[in-house]
Amino acid sequence: MTKTVLRVLAGEAVWPPPVWLMRQAGRYLPEYRAMRAQAGDFLKLCLTPELAAEITLQPLRRFAMDAAILFSDLPIVSLGLGQALRYAEGEGPILPPIRTEADLDALSLDRVADIVAPVWETVRRVAAGIGPATLIGFSGAPFTVACYMVEGHGSREFAAARLMAYRDPALFQRLIDLIIDANLIYLRGQADAGAEVLMLFDSWAGMLPPDEFRRWVIHPTARLAAALRETHPHVPLIGFPRLAGSMLGDYALSAGMQGVAIDTAMNPTAAAAMVPPTIALQGNLDPLALVAGGPAMHAAAGKILDALRGRPHIFNLGHGIVPQTPPDHVGALVEQIRAV
Amino acid sequence: MTKTVLRVLAGEAVWPPPVWLMRQAGRYLPEYRAMRAQAGDFLKLCLTPELAAEITLQPLRRFAMDAAILFSDLPIVSLGLGQALRYAEGEGPILPPIRTEADLDALSLDRVADIVAPVWETVRRVAAGIGPATLIGFSGAPFTVACYMVEGHGSREFAAARLMAYRDPALFQRLIDLIIDANLIYLRGQADAGAEVLMLFDSWAGMLPPDEFRRWVIHPTARLAAALRETHPHVPLIGFPRLAGSMLGDYALSAGMQGVAIDTAMNPTAAAAMVPPTIALQGNLDPLALVAGGPAMHAAAGKILDALRGRPHIFNLGHGIVPQTPPDHVGALVEQIRAV
């Protein structure tokens, strides 16, 4: 029997819906924190297959989830292009910012495969041990990766990246094209190693006005999707254009995804109206409702289940799980969904 | 002849539309920065009528704007309630966080009028000198003020505030009610002092799932609006539920605003479809398009003008103006709008 996540991504409404929680495999689990403390460096965790595979599987050892997502991080693909990447303690990624033609010239596709090979090995190990659950690989979508590469770090506005897009759209396009090509290598390798679904996180898509959203989010995603379909027609794609808001319908119609993840703020009823019924919706419980637990959490989850019943739906959070989440709330949520 | 901003807020489509730029009066202007450097403390600037009035008027001395917004800040109302407020250099507001019943008991409505009196004096001074432009007063909307009051500082997630709303909704409601009452005193005083329009900034509304959005954004705003209409029926209200996304229509239908400001990410065509045609839309040029200037800016502004032509529209940014904005780009934008 086909796995439920794959049935839903093929357009089938499965009830109760399959469930998994994005995004960092086990960062709310003590067994993850112990591993993290031992390894020290976050990037080292991501690039050590033995550790990354174990972390990917940790949530499955505790909860009856239908899928697990590769333990990795959005900008790994920029490391593949030759941009140095490090993680400062308690902060996100730090990269030497790309601001000029010359900065871009220094990047290359030649070593992507060598550099991301440990991630592929992680996928192979997870695939061997995942059992009946579905293995989801991922990368950052071109726009969001470009944001990090140009800005050099996380930011509320990503002003440098967005100003480059306005002031020198040809240069920004060249960067986007390079990220598409690097992502093709990276994601095809994940699929070849055993990833059954691929997800594209466009965490910063929601900052853009409509025309910029079409140009830098929808078009690059559609090109990436079309190229992946050519070589891997049986690997469905889930896109997460976070805070897409009024642009969600355009994204669903044109980005070439089989599933669209919706963020916490999106009204699931509105999403169901904007997105064609053949495309799966994934989401969208507030991660803070999961931290709160109890009746507030169950009520919030119940409304999402009701709103998306009868269409293809994968239950998930609307944003990444937060570290202070009590694991028993996760257990109670999964039980609620199984019991509907 | 009635001022264009007021005509638009009465439901009239005026062409070309009136224009002003939110939110910090002149922070992109050298004359503001000189004043800021002289005064040192940001809060002192806000509470010194002579300085705050001059800053409010600075953009009008350079550009043919149709309105000016009071120079102040969102959490001033919490200062009125007795919560200490300060601004750390280069950071936003810092407040001793409200977390318990006892913290709430320490707040009071008794001194609001005394504490915010300097702001009212600022409004009086601006009203005397503003000429044909419209004077817009403002405060933080209840939810966003509550976010600052509970969290104690700016934040990407406002986890403490949002967890209080899930875990102890009665306590959070009590805080919201108190902010509504303080805002009533504060905003009525602004109107009495000469503010012709009042704006409610709900900067963090877009984090909330639909039910929470209705409960903590729409309902409190509607209550505040109804109470203001009772005493000041001729002062129109503009609400700015930033990143409302799919909830914009619900907000427009139920929050009791005569104008709704839309953020950068909102597709103006989608907003026009979601918001009744009698309610004015305000927005929504990307502040970074204004920084970029030139053809990219003019194209982006032109699309917004076209999308909202034929309905009541006040041209503005979709988010606050950023300090690095070149003043001559502002001049070129205003000229473009006048010349359509």
How would you describe what is shown here?
- Two copies of one chain form a homodimer.
- By secondary structure, chain A is of the alpha/beta class.
- Chain A has one domain (4-338): TIM Barrel (Alpha-Beta Barrel).
- Chain A has helices at 4-9, 30-39, 42-47, 49-62, 76-80, 101-105, 112-129, 142-151, 159-167, 169-193, 210-231, 248-254, 268-274, 287-292, 294-308, 327-338, and strands spanning 67-69, 86-87, 93-94, 134-140, 197-202, 237-241, 259-261, 280-285, 313-317.
- In chain A, the strands form two sheets. In chain A, strands 1-4-5-6-7-8-9 form a seven-stranded parallel beta sheet. Chain A has a two-stranded antiparallel ribbon with strand order 2-3.
- In chain A, helix 8 crosses helix 10 and helix 9 packs across helix 10.
- The first copy, chain A, is globular and about 55 Å long.
- The two termini of chain A are 22 Å apart.
- Chains A and B meet through helix 9, helix 11, helix 13, helix 14 and helix 15 of A and helix 9, helix 11, helix 13, helix 14 and helix 15 of B.
